[in-house]
C-alpha cells in the first residue's frame, strides 16, 4: 500500500510525528536511521499499525511518498556543536530515491543555514533534481513535549519556512492536516532560528531560576514561595522551576552559524545549569554531615532518573552525573523509577529498589531528582531519614528543598 508520508528517523522527533500523522489518518512509512531513543508500547504499536503505519523494509520505499520529513536526532558533538551526521546520512539515503514533486521537510534541530547549505546540496547532488523547481524543500522546528497532556500535535501551532513561497505552501498544506494552526515564517533560516530561540529560551530561563535557588538558599529564602508569588503577575513573567540540571534532546546552541557567533547568555546558561548536579552533591554532603554521617559509605536512594516527569526518556538526565559523583565519593547508591526497569552508571548496574517505602526508610539519604506523578511525597517524607527534594514537590516542611 503506498504511503502519503515517510518519516525518516524514528527517535524523539520522528516517532511523535509518525504517531500524529497516523492519528490524522495519513498512511505513514517509518524509516529508521539508527538506534531509536524513543519507543512504543505494544498497544501503541498495534494502534499505529491498524491506522496505516508501516516500517520500511527497503530504502527504495522512500521514493513512493508525497512528503518526506527528515528528523533524526542531532546530539551535541565533541566540539560542542550539533552533530549532523545522522541527518546527512538520512539525506543521502532519500536523495537516491527522490522523485519530482516530493515535499521534503527537515525537523531536526540544526544551526541556521543548514537546510540551504547542507541539506539542499545533498539532495540535489544525489537526485539530480533542483530544490524549489523539481521538489519542495522546507524547515519546520519540532515542537515535541513528551508527557505533556495539555499540548498535542493537533493543538500546537507549526512553524513553516520554505526555500520558495511555493515550498512554504506545500509544507503548510501537509502540516495543515496535523494541526489546527500553521505559522508561515519569512524563509527557511527564520524557521531554523525559531528552533534556536525556543531551545535557548528554555535553557536560559532555567539557568536563571537555578541561580536564584542557590542564592535563596544562602539567604535563607524559600525560592519556591518566591516563584509561586511571582507567577501571579499576569504580564512580563513566565514561571520556570529550578532542578538538579537540564536534560532532554534539545541542545542549547551558542554557535549560531558558520561564523561561529557566540551567544554569551546561552554560554553562561550552560555553565550555570552544568553546575547544578555538583550543587546537589554539595547539599547532600552537607545534610549528611549535619546528621553525623559522611557521603562515603552512606546509603543514598535516588528517586526518578529520567530527564522529565512521567516519561521513560533518560537523554542527558542530570541523574547520571549525580550518581556518578556519589559513586566517586564512595556512596552506596540505589534508585527507584516507575518508568525505568534497569539503570547503569560507570558501566555498573545500579541496584533498583522495588519496595519503595522500605528502601526510603533504610536509606541514610533519599534524593528526589524527578517528580513522577506516582510519588506520594508526603508519605515518602514520613518514611525517609533525610529527604532532599530538588524539584520543590514535597509539602513545605516535609523535606529539605533545593
Could you give a short description of this structure?
The protein has 402 residues and is of the alpha/beta class.
Folded structure, characterized:
This protein has 402 residues and is an alpha/beta fold. The chain is 36% helix and 13% strand. It has helices at 14-23, 42-50, 85-95, 114-127, 165-175, 188-219, 223-230, 264-274, 276-290, 318-328, 356-362, 377-383; strands at residues 5-8, 28-31, 53-55, 67-70, 103-106, 136-139, 158-162, 182-184, 299-303, 332-336, 344-345, 348-349, 365-368, 387-389, 400-401. Helix 5 links the parallel strand 7 and strand 8 (182-184). Helix 3 packs parallel to helix 4, helix 6 (188-219) packs across helix 8 (264-274) and helix 9 packs across helix 10.
Characteristics of this structure?
402 residues, alpha/beta, eight-stranded mixed sheet, five-stranded parallel sheet, 15 strands, elongated
Largest sheet: 8 strands, mixed
Strand order of the largest sheet: 3-2-1-4-5-6-7-8
Shape: elongated
pLDDT averaged residue by residue:
93
Q: How many distinct beta strands? A: 15
* Count of helix runs: 12
SSE pattern, N- to C-terminal: EHEHEEHEHEEHEHHHHEHEEEHEHEE
* Spatial gap, N to C terminus: 55 Å
Q: Name the poorly predicted regions.
A: none
- Derived from helix and strand composition plus strand pairing, the structural class reads alpha/beta
- How much helix is in the residues? 25-40%
Beta percentage is 5-15%
- Rounded to an integer in angstroms, the radius of gyration calculated over CA atoms is 23 Å
Amino acid at each position: 500500500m503506498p504511503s502519503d508520508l515517510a518519516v525518516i528517523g524514528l527517535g524523539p522527533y520522528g516517532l511523535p510525528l509518525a504517531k500524529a500523522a497516523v492519528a490524522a489518518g495519513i498512511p505513514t512509512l517509518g524509516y529508521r536511521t539508527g538506534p531509536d531513543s524513543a519507543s512504543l508500547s505494544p498497544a501503541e504499536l498495534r494502534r499505529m499499525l491498524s491506522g496505516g503505519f508501516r516500517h520500511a523494509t527497503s530504502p527504495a520505499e522512500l521514493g513512493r511518498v508525497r512528503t518526506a520529513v527528515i528528523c533524526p536526532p542531532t546530539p551535541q558533538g565533541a566540539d560542542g556543536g550539533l552533530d549532523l551526521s545522522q541527518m546527512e546520512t538520512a539525506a543521502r539515503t532519500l536523495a537516491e530515491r527522490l522523485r519530482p514533486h516530493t515535499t521534503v521537510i527537515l525537523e531536526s534541530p540544526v544551526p541556521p543555514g543548514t537546510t540551504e547549505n547542507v541539506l539542499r546540496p545533498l539532495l540535489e547532488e544525489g537526485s539530480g533534481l533542483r530544490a524549489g523547481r523539481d521538489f519542495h524543500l522546507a524547515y519546520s522546528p519540532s515542537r515535541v513535549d513528551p508527557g505533556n497532556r495539555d499540548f498535542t500535535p493537533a493543538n500546537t501551532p507549526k512553524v513553516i519556512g520554505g526555500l520558495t513561497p511555493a515550498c512554504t505552501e506545500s509544507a503548510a498544506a501537509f502540516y495543515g492536516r496535523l494541526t489546527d494552526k500553521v505559522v508561515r515564517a519569512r524563509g527557511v533560516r527564520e524557521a531554523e532560528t525559531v528552533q534556536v530561540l525556543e531551545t535557548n529560551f528554555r535553557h536560559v530561563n532555567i539557568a536563571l531560576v537555578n541561580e536564584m535557588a542557590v542564592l535563596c538558599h544562602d539567604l535563607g529564602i524559600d525560592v519556591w514561595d518566591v516563584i509561586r508569588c511571582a507567577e501571579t503577575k499576569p504580564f512580563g513573567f513566565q514561571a520556570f522551576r529550578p532542578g538538579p540540571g537540564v536534560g532532554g534532546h534539545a541542545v542549547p546552541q551558542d554557535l549560531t552559524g558558520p561564523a561561529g557567533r557566540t551567544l554569551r547568555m546561552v554560554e553562561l546558561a550552560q555553565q550555570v545549569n552544568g553546575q547544578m548536579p555538583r550543587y546537589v552533591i554539595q547539599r547532600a554532603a552537607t545534610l549528611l554531615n549535619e546528621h553525623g554521617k559522611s557521603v562515603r559509605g552512606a546509603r543514598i536512594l535516588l528517586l526518578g532518573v529520567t530527564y522529565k516527569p512521567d516519561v521513560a526518556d533518560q537523554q542527558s538526565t542530570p541523574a547520571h552525573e549525580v550518581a556518578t559523583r556519589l559513586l566517586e565519593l564512595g556512596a552506596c547508591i540505589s534508585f527507584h523509577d516507575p518508568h525505568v526497569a534497569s539503570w547503569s552508571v560507570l558501566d555498573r548496574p545500579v541496584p533498583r529498589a522495588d519496595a519503595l517505602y522500605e528502601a526510603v526508610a533504610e536509606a541514610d539519604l533519599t534524593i528526589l531528582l524527578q517528580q513522577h506523578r506516582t510519588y506520594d511525597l508526603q508519605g515518602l517524607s514520613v518514611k525517609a531519614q533525610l529527604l532532599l527534594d530538588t524539584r520543590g514537590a514535597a509539602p513545605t516542611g516535609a523535606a529539605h528543598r533545593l
